[in-house]
Amino acid sequence: MGLIRSDEWVVMLDEKGLDVGSEQMASLIGDAGNSGSSSLLFCIGGPYGHGKQLRERANTSIRLSSLVLNHEIALVVLMEQLYRSWTILKGQKYHH
Question: Which keywords does UniProt give here (predicted)?
């Protein structure tokens, strides 16, 4: 927890988080950018999830799937969704 600065927007990836679609993910990223935060931080939990401190610190919590994903797969899915979100925000044609 000592590595997370107070001016960072923290998104906790959690199986109990909000179920978001691609457009909602893009909005979340856009809103975080407009909030004045210095950076956007996504936290992927380990096999036992996240600790109490991170749960209390997170600005929001989302899930990438209704399936439970190991952290390696979650990272791949997150990277694709970040790319998709940026294309939505820029109005590009990747997302249909």
Answer: Methyltransferase, S-adenosyl-L-methionine, Transferase
